[in-house]
Amino acid sequence: MSNYDKVKIVVVGDSGVGKTSAVYLICNNQPLTSTAWTVGASLEVKLHEYKEGTPQQKSYFVDLWDIGGSSSHENTRPVFYNGVNGIILVHDLNNRKSEVNLHRWIMEILNRDSGKGNQSSDEDFDPEQFAGSSHIPIFVIGTKADTGDGVRQRSALSRATSIADECGADEIFINCLDIKAFAPGSTSAVKLSRFFDRVIERRFHPDHSHSYYDRRKLWPQAPRIFSDE
Ligand SMILES: Nc1nc2c(ncn2[C@@H]2O[C@H](COP(=O)(O)OP(=O)(O)OP(=O)(O)O)[C@@H](O)[C@H]2O)c(=O)[nH]1
Fold it and tell me: What's the family (predicted)?
């Protein structure tokens, strides 16, 4: 197998929101027809072309760690958060609570070393501090855009209430069962590719990534909390 450099991205969100379905679609370019609860975590790998079409183009492996959302596994999950280079937050567009709960998922990743796990409350979450202290790129996926009226309701919400906006992250709404959800050139595919580029840039070319963080007015003095730096 080719020896490409790789980055690690964890995919988190409540049980049943569609993490496994989204990861499968991203890595296999086809929808998953039958799913089961993810126990622990499962790993899918995508070969990504960094800065495709430019002289800097290079292939990298993107490891997508699909973390089981069941609360019964929360004590064992922190082991999967070591050396994380990026985070994909997944919520069900027809289940507003699943978006609110993403605060807890972020706190679980932040607290992985403290033993607090998922016991943090929504009130503990300070997106500015989170983004500033970790500098970890985040991407948000809203699933089940094909069902209910979740997309309409979600679009009507003020931007201030969106987790993506709180974290300075890009966001897409998709139907994970649609083979065209990440069709080449589509908005979703372009945003996802840009996110992978950011994760790779920050891990392997940190000198080039300042403009991204400057734009988001992050907190430069904050301690670095993730270990692989
Ligand atoms: N209609 C529709 N169904 C979806 C979509 N995404 C996921 N599903 C369905 O939702 C159910 C749960 O999907 P999973 O991908 O297993 O959810 P998960 O987040 O990985 O769940 P856990 O493994 O328990 O953490 C499955 O029946 C999927 O087929 C979507 O965009 N549209």
Answer: Belongs to the small GTPase superfamily. Rab family.
Q: Is residue 229 part of a domain?
A: no
Three-state secondary structure call for residue 122? helix
CA 41/CA 218 separation, integer angstroms: 31
68 lines ligand 1 (CB under 6 A): yes
Residue 223 lies in a domain: no
Q: Is the CB of 70 within 6 Å of ligand 1?
A: yes
| Entry pTM | 0.85
ipTM of the complex: 0.98
Q: Best substitution site from 92, 176, 182 to test ligand 1's pocket, by max atoms within 8 Å of Cβ?
A: 176
Residue-range definition of the domain harbouring residue 131: 6-218
Write the pLDDT tens digit of every residue in 111-168.
Answer: 764 444 445 455 556 665 555 555 789 999 999 999 977 666 666 665 557 889 888 8
Measure the CA–CA gap between 70 and 77, rounded to whole angstroms: 10
Give the chain's domain count.
1
